[in-house]
Amino acid sequence: MNLESLYQEIILDHYKHGRGKGLREPFDAQVQHVNPTCGDEITLRVALHDAVVQDISYAAMGCSISQASTSVMYELLNGKPLGEVWPIHEAFVKMIEGRGKVEPDEDVLGDGIAFAGVASYPARVKCALLGWMAFKDATVQALGKDYT
Amino acid sequence: MNLESLYQEIILDHYKHGRGKGLREPFDAQVQHVNPTCGDEITLRVALHDAVVQDISYAAMGCSISQASTSVMYELLNGKPLGEVWPIHEAFVKMIEGRGKVEPDEDVLGDGIAFAGVASYPARVKCALLGWMAFKDATVQALGKDYT
Amino acid sequence: MSPLDVATLRKDFPILSRTVRNDRDLVYLDSGATSQKPAVVLDAERDFYETRNAAVHRGAHQLAEEATDAFEMARATIAAFVGGHVSEVVFTRNATEALNLVAYAFQNATADAGPDRFVLEPGDEILITEMEHHANLVPWQQVARRTGATLRWFGVTDDGRLDFDPSMITDRTKVVSLTHQSNVLGTINPVAQVAAAAHEVGALVVVDACQSVPHMPVDVHALGADFIAFSGHKMLAPTGVGVLWGRADLLAQMPPMLTGGSMIEQVFMDHSTFAAPPQRFEAGVPNIAQAVALGVACDYLTDVGLQAIHEHEVYLTGLALEGLAGLPGIRIIGPTDLADRGGAVSFVADGIHSHDLGQVLDDSGVAVRVGHHCAWPLHRRFGVAATTRATFYLYNDEQDVAALVEGTKRALEFFA
Amino acid sequence: MSPLDVATLRKDFPILSRTVRNDRDLVYLDSGATSQKPAVVLDAERDFYETRNAAVHRGAHQLAEEATDAFEMARATIAAFVGGHVSEVVFTRNATEALNLVAYAFQNATADAGPDRFVLEPGDEILITEMEHHANLVPWQQVARRTGATLRWFGVTDDGRLDFDPSMITDRTKVVSLTHQSNVLGTINPVAQVAAAAHEVGALVVVDACQSVPHMPVDVHALGADFIAFSGHKMLAPTGVGVLWGRADLLAQMPPMLTGGSMIEQVFMDHSTFAAPPQRFEAGVPNIAQAVALGVACDYLTDVGLQAIHEHEVYLTGLALEGLAGLPGIRIIGPTDLADRGGAVSFVADGIHSHDLGQVLDDSGVAVRVGHHCAWPLHRRFGVAATTRATFYLYNDEQDVAALVEGTKRALEFFA
Ligand SMILES: Cc1ncc(COP(=O)(O)O)c(C=O)c1O
Ligand SMILES: Cc1ncc(COP(=O)(O)O)c(C=O)c1O
Predict the structure, then answer these.
(1) Which residues of C are identified as catalytic?
(2) Which of C27, C201, D196, D396 could form a disulfide with C366 if both were Cys (CB 3.0 to 4.6 A apart)?
(3) Given an 8 Å threshold on Cβ–Cβ distance, is A37 in contact with C57?
(4) Per residue in D165-210, pLDDT tens?
(5) Confidence tier at D266 by pLDDT (50, 70, 90)
(6) CA distance C15 to chain B (A)
(7) For the CA atoms of C63, C69, C71, C74, what is the dihedral angle to 10 degrees?
(8) Lowest mean pLDDT among A94-108, C188-202, D162-176, D245-259
(9) How far, in Å, are B86, C304, D217, D338 from residue D396 at the CA level?
(10) Which residues lie closer than 8 Å to D370 by C-beta, 6 or more apart?
């Protein structure tokens, strides 16, 4: 691994130009997640309608990896029905936690495969997953609200 | 060091025929000391009069070393004025804690020098001092009572 | 017959080739206090320092990543060793700290009006046994005193078995804590049976597995335990590392005992929130190298085979009981049959204090333990102040047992 | 100029000859997190296991005697190292546990209506600082909450110095706990001055000496401390051992935190009495080999010279501050002068997160720490989430500092 394969162009681009940034209304659930080692944090909102992700909005403070991965997540998941969302989510988490041994599927992950290099840097795994874990948490909460 | 120099005849004799055993009246102070590692214990009484040790009486449960050293202590200290008692006491403790490097003085310690070998067995130091520490404690208490 | 090839195993333990007292071969029969270490474990510890030493979970550099990997892989190995999940293994200094950690969960939850499961009130009962090591007794005395709960205990029968009286387990019982194998008697307790009764009334079950995990196959779920505690130094690993295994859902509810770095989620000057287990219970830079080496010790034990180790120890115990029975004035404290029994043989000799007996054994090169072995109330139960205890492990053989019997005979003669 | 012959010292540290990431030489600038270990310390630890391993204070056999000797001699060495008495040194796992031990003395004494000195009541105040490591912050939050006492703190000035306001020390102040040297800012605090003010009102003084004892001469009496805590792993010793030094008369009054074997005087089923310090605070089989090795580490440091080590680190710090000042957009968090300052240099770079900066440094072979370094409130105070921190020790040299500056430059370019 070298620096360039960790910080691919696409990551630096998402880092500098985050997609979907900001906290928007309406939303069904809001969560705050932190990375306890470096203090990075994200506030993330999810709006659902008929099991479709209507909006993911967020305000985050963090490193390039965490910022970019949240931005890529926005592009990948926003507007999609949950049935399509979970396979992508799972594939992303699997790749990141795969210690470089999981072959990512570009058809499923799109730009997300740019983060494959993170898997070789265990200390950055939490960075890459910060937004994704917040999304999962918020969506589960939103669903809970829906059905109770 | 070998077993015979640790367990000298004189020690085995004092162990089998403890001098001054039993708890007697009158007394000025009574203490109970234990050896927390093996559970050995001693109850010891001191009677003082005019700064002279009138009686040391005791009930003890313990190994040959602790039993014999208390018996030897009885012989060495009982009936003596405190002015003579403390130098003997100090010399005995010094020898036992001396790790085999302190040359014992037979003129001061009498039969007590039989315990010189204990100094080479650190785990037995507490055994050899059980009665002696109880005596010191009881005497200090008795003196405190005298002068307050 | 022993299922182990002891002669070959002994070569792995450098210390066993030293001599003691006037050039006697060392006969080490004190593994119940602490075990000796094979070279492979010492190599692992040293290798960690020479190649990967860094603070874990804190750095983003390569050394820190490698150190964290080694540490977390050891956790996974140890979890598998006892049939638990990796997130259920907490590293402590020793079993004593592990047991205190559970006891403090009750004390602190009660002080904080925390999760019900851990809150104790006057009338609630903590149930232990009369054969407990001080490590599984004194912490519960403290908790009982500070919460107002009552400490009760099962007795011990004359032949050294647990006097299990199910009627003592009632709705008032909130926690049952007992040893899996007595470090004095050798008795293996029917933990699963006790645990089932305890769970029926909703009590939590803590198992002091100090003398079982190193010596026989232990599976936390088969035991029915909610927590188990054990020490690395008793199972071929370095000093300075112990383990608390706890059921995930319980650890998740428990307040930490120690607080500080690496166990937090967020920290402000006036309050903090805490990380998920196991990190919540590992404040500060942990005993990293020791944990890594403990992982290697588990692998070594697994390779030798825990069932074989147990059978080997039972075999030696049989020989020892037989040999000692042949000497005059020897009384065994503990079962004299081999059913549900591990390799600890404690005894007293008529008219000879155990300190003196142990001294003669030491002079013969035989290292045993004398005293109350941190089980003072148990000794009181048997009306003795102290016993002489021989404990066996995978590196002991028939000759060691013969040396014990021979040395005891010498002591009887010496003090006759 | 440095007073040390670093090239020669480096040969003592096996790990320093390894390479990282694509064959870069390792530049280890994370000693503030944990230090590397010289061979002589690793030898001592291994030698203990290979020649004298036994449980201390428990056995009467020769191994146990030798192990106990080695352990207690290490205690004496460490006591002398900080100017204390041997009976005042308590072995813990790390500094975090040592600080918790003191905090629990207050919590438990309060729960037990114990010795006045340690009882806290609503209205009483615990005084710390805004630059504390979580280890000297979170335990006091817990104590305050559980006793009803109030937690207060001295602030930090813009240039990273303690904002010492003597008027905050009042009759209500029961304990003042502060770091000797900040692990983030490098600031050395005027502990003696604070301690004098605290003692005037009868408050106890706890010093977190984690970053001072390894790096400069420390004398507990000159400091005026009642307790000091430090970690072995930060001073060339193994992981898994730390020290609490406490004034004898205070330790004598303190209830134990952990209970179990070896810390008792007498044990009955329903109550126990405890041994005198330091044993009272060392429950269970201790981290023996680690303590022995810590003694050897102290000897090694004494041989090199603590004053020389301090001067060496100040020299490197000067070079680092100078080198970083030459780069655009770098802000130092902490004093930029060298007065009362040790070898921790923390900084932020405009527009680059410290995690990213650290990654480029790592790729250059330079191991630094990124994040809040367990001092989150201090980072909040400076309006940053995280910093990049380089820390120096006796084995670092001018080239290491140059690599830090060079690597930082590379990061600035990479993320430009
Ligand atoms: C100032 C300070 N205090 C406390 C600690 C905690 O030390 P440990 O994690 O070894 O307990 C550290 C190091 O992490 C420190 O730098
Ligand atoms: C049954 C039992 N419980 C607890 C302990 C305490 O272990 P440690 O001293 O390693 O904490 C021991 C060993 O001393 C033991 O044998």
Answers:
(1) 374
(2) C27
(3) yes
(4) 999 999 999 999 999 999 999 999 999 999 999 999 999 999 999 9
(5) very high
(6) 21
(7) -150
(8) A94-108
(9) 57, 44, 19, 18
(10) A38, C59, C60, D354, D355, D357, D358, D386, D387, D388, D389
**Closest ligand 2 atom, CA of D285?**
9
User: Active-site residue D374, yes or no?
Assistant: yes
In which residue are the tokens 């926690």 written? C175
Q: How many CB pairs under 8 A join B and D?
A: 20
**C64 with A36: Cβ contact below 8 A:** no
Q: Give the model confidence (pLDDT) of B9-66 as tens digits.
A: 999 999 999 999 999 999 999 999 999 888 899 999 999 999 999 999 999 999 999 9
The answer to whether D394 touches D367, Cβ cutoff 8 Å, is no
Judge contact between D227 and D208, C-beta under 8 A. Answer: no
d(CA C416, CA A87) in angstroms, rounded, equals: 81
Beta carbons of B121 and D275 less than 8 Å apart: no
Q: Is the peptide bond before A87 cis (omega within 30 degrees of 0)?
A: no
Residue D180's SS3 state is coil
**Nearest-5° angle of CA C23, CA D287, CA C256?**
155
Pick left, alpha or beta for residue D336 (phi over 0 → left; psi -120 to 50 → alpha; otherwise beta).
Answer: alpha
Contact C275 A37 (CB under 8 A): no
Among C384, D206, C55, C52, CA closest to B38: C384
The ipTM is: 0.96
D and A touch with 3+ CB pairs <8 Å, answer yes
| Nearest residue (CA) to ligand 1, atom 16 | D183
Provide, as residue numbers in chain C, all residues whose Cβ is less than 8 Å from the Cβ of A34: 265-266
Q: Are the C-beta atoms of residues C159 and C336 closer than 8 Å to each other?
A: yes
Amino acid identity, residue A35? N
D264 chain-B contacts, CB cut-off 8 A:
36
Give chain B's contact residues with C (Cβ, < 8 Å).
Answer: 1-3, 6-7, 12, 37-41, 61-65, 121, 124, 127
- When CB atoms are compared, the residue of C34, C55, C368 closest to D53 is C34
Mode of pairing for the β-strands spanning C330-333 and C272-274: unpaired
Q: Is pLDDT above 50 for A148?
A: no
Query: What count of residues does chain C have?
Result: 416
Cα–Cα distances (Å) from C373 to B118, C362, D60, in that order, read 22, 17, 12
> Is there a contact between D141 and C51 if contact means CB atoms under 8 Å apart?
no
Q: Which residues of C334-363 are buried (b: 16+ CB within 10 A; e: fewer)?
A: bbeeeeebbbbbbbbbeebbbbbbbbbbbb
Q: Which residue type does C246 have? A: G
How far apart, in whole angstroms, are the C-alpha atoms of residue D266 and residue B39?
8
Q: Which of D243, D248, D287, D254 is nearest to D67 (CA)?
A: D287
- Residue found under tokens 């659930």: A29
Classify the phi-psi angles of D57: left when phi > 0, otherwise alpha if psi is within -120 to 50, otherwise beta: left
Which residues does ligand 1 sit against, CB inside 6 Å?
C 261, 284-285; D 94-96, 133, 135-136, 179, 183, 208, 210-211, 231, 242, 374
**Structural contact between residues C361 and C388, judged by C-beta atoms closer than 8 angstroms:** yes
pLDDT level of residue B148 (50, 70, 90 thresholds) = very low
Burial (CB < 10 A; 0-12, 13-18, 19+), residue C130, is middle
Beta strands B52-61 and C272-274: pairing type? unpaired
The ligand placed nearest to the CA atom of residue C187 is 2
Minimum CA–CA partner of B99 in chain D = D69
